[in-house]
Amino acid sequence: MLGPVILAASRSDRIRRLVSAAPVTKQVVDRFIPGETVDEIVSIVLDLTDRGLELTMDVVGEDITTPDQAAAARDAYLELVDRLERLELGTRAEMSVKLSMFGQALPGGHELALANIRPVVEAAAAIGTTVTLDAEDHTTLDSMFAIHEELRKDFPQTGCVIQAYLFRTEADARRLAASGSRVRLVKGAYNEPAEVAYQNRHEIDKAYVRTLKVLMEGEGYPMVGSHDPRLISIAQELAHRAGRKLDEYEFQMLYGIRGDEHLRLAAEGHRMRVYTAYGTDWYGYFMRRLAEKPANLRFFARSMIGHG
User: Fold this and answer.
1) What would the pLDDT profile of 137-164 be if each residue is shown by its tens digit?
2) Do 72 and 58 meet the contact criterion of CB atoms below 8 Å apart?
3) Which of 118, 225, 250, 253 has the greatest number of CB atoms lying within 10 Å of its CB?
4) Over 87-103, what HEC string results?
């Protein structure tokens, strides 16, 4: 069970410095995070959309300790909206945000995060796109869902993420599916205690299928966040049973993982959205990608050995 160990390492300043200083790190990080600025990723965004793919864009960064940093995060997303408008990609690229980046963990963080995220959601709507609120650890979720509900009063297309490994998620899915919102289902990538989350991969997979069935049978728009071939096949079958057309749900996968599968699903007529992150504060995002999938860790380890 290397996942919890890696997730613990993601919170270690010492390991952060070690990984960041390794000569090979940038090469490996580039596999998952293709640039640090909007300018650096424009060519990648255009290439993906030219291939028939859609995107959800994430400006990485969660270690926010001041209101000024939270405001800077807001401004980074507003810059992204401006660039998407100039590229005329409002209908092809949405945005994903972590509310911790908008100040959620600071004193008065709920109100601060809501105040910072609202102008981003407004700007996104103005160019024909939307925002999805990423799920973080379980202690943040009640705040995230409350902000989601508040935003949807004016911007009903605002999405949110639920995590299959949490015991609460099936109930959350039933509530969200009934409301007609856009919901991305993922397995979960935080080190959660046994009191609130399944620890066994098999149990997590079963919970994923149960929750996905709720979403597919509901009134909302399911977004299937998985790279697992078996779960992708199950999702297609559940969608078929629920009578959903191909444009009534979508698949989402991370940039840098199973790129051929992205193109295969798009070629079959599915909506396929690539989660594409960029920015300088990449460490936490990168470590969770290693924790999620053993193959990612093996890739990093081989690279480290090859450049030792």
Assistant:
1) 999 999 999 999 999 999 999 999 999 9
2) no
3) 225
4) CCCCCCEEEEECHHHHC
- Provide the token pair at 113: 């995060």
Nearest to 44 by CA among 225, 214, 255, 235: 255
**Predicted model pTM:** 0.86
Catalytic residues: 134, 184
pLDDT band per the 50, 70, 90 thresholds, residue 29? low
Looking at the DSSP bridge assignments, the partners of residue 278 are 59
Counting beta carbons within 10 angstroms of the beta carbon of residue 101, is it exposed (0 to 12), middle (13 to 18) or buried (19 or more)?
Answer: buried
Residues 65 and 112: their CA atoms lie apart, in Å, by 13
